[in-house]
């Protein structure tokens, strides 16, 4: 028979062994779960994943692998997903779906996975300040040519003056020359012409004159060699040129002394020779100071 002392020692030993058997650390449980999950994921099976976006593909993967997938679909919707068709393990199929993407996963149990996205590094750029000004509507309605432009573009007559201007042309008068300008389909006397602010005379061609062989009355032309600036205004512009500018206006400004004489000089000279192959026209211009005079001589075929 055991004594009371021996019975006490035996009872303590049995209690200690029971305690040691029950106490298991959480890390051991997690490791065991991951081991079991990896073993389950290592089994090969057939997959046919054809989702267009990654969120759809992950749902198909979870259904075909018979897994519970914990993820937020909206976070994966903007990524395209490759097709995964064939015999793979669950882990292989999942790796193909998220290959090259900032996405990782974690096994929680044999049939449960948790997906998460990795934070993407952002690039910070220096602040740039952009200053802009509204386009003046009048700038789109006006075309301005300076004396330098007339020389650089080799402008010989009114047709050359408007050849690069959209919506502007010269009204042809046959053998009588040109008859003013046409702006956006409005022509002749409905387009105002001024020289140094003075309106030019309108065309004059009454029907009664046709009996005497007068069929065309044209407007005065201006020698462009004497012009400092030309402003072509599109549209009604009665505020600046007065009445008559229904279709627009062509405003000429003639040269002054400063255009002939350079600073700190007492006299100046101007000479020009031009030729137009269209009508075999020659043009010669000579001018100077003092006195202020310009002579233009031109001849050609009609």
UniProtKB/TrEMBL annotation:
Native species: Thiopseudomonas alkaliphila
All residue ranges annotated as the TonB-dependent receptor plug domain in the record: 146-249
Keyword list (alphabetical) reads: Cell outer membrane, Membrane, Signal, Transmembrane, Transmembrane beta strand, Transport
Q: What is its main location?
A: membrane
- Please give the GO cellular component terms listed in this UniProt entry: cell outer membrane
Q: Which GO terms describe its biological process?
A: siderophore transmembrane transport
What SUPFAM superfamilies would the database entry show? Porins
**Entry's PROSITE patterns?**
TONB_DEPENDENT_REC_3 (PS52016)
Topology of this chain in the membrane:
Multi-pass membrane protein
Q: What is this protein called?
A: TonB-dependent receptor plug domain-containing protein
Q: Which family does it belong to?
A: Belongs to the TonB-dependent receptor family.
Q: Name one Pfam family in it.
A: Plug
Subcellular locations according to the entry: Cell outer membrane
The terms under GO molecular function for this entry are: siderophore uptake transmembrane transporter activity
Annotated InterPro entries: Plug_dom, Plug_dom_sf, TonB-dep_rcpt-like
């Amino acid at each position: 028979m055991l004594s009371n002392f021996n019975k006490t020692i035996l009872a303590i030993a049995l209690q200690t062994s029971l305690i040691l058997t029950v106490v298991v650390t959480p890390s051991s449980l997690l490791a065991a779960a991951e081991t079991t999950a990896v073993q389950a994921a290592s089994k090969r099976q057939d997959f046919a994943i054809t989702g267009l976006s990654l969120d759809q593909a992950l749902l198909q993967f979870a259904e075909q692998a018979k897994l519970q997938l914990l993820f937020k679909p909206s976070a994966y919707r903007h990524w395209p997903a490759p097709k995964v068709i064939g015999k793979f393990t669950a882990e292989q199929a999942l790796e193909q779906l998220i290959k090259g993407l900032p996405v990782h996963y974690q096994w929680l149990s044999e049939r449960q996975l948790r997906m998460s996205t990795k934070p993407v590094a952002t690039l910070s750029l220096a602040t740039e300040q952009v200053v802009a000004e509204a386009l003046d509507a009048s700038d789109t309605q006006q075309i301005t040519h300076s004396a330098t432009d007339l020389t650089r573009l080799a402008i010989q007559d009114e047709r050359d003056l408007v050849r690069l201007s959209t919506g502007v042309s010269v009204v042809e008068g046959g053998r009588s020359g040109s008859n003013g300008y046409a702006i956006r389909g409005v022509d002749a006397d409905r387009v105002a012409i001024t020289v140094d602010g003075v309106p030019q005379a309108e065309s004059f061609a009454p029907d009664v004159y046709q009996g005497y062989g007068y069929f065309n009355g044209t407007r005065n032309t201006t020698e462009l060699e004497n012009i400092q600036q030309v402003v072509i205004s599109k549209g009604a512009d009665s505020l600046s040129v007065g009445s008559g500018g229904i279709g627009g206006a062509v405003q000429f400004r003639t040269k002054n002394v400063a255009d002939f004489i350079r600073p700190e000089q007492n006299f100046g000279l101007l000479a020009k020779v031009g030729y137009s192959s269209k009508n075999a026209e020659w043009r010669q211009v000579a001018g100077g100071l003092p006195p202020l005079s310009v002579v233009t001589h031109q001849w050609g075929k009609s």
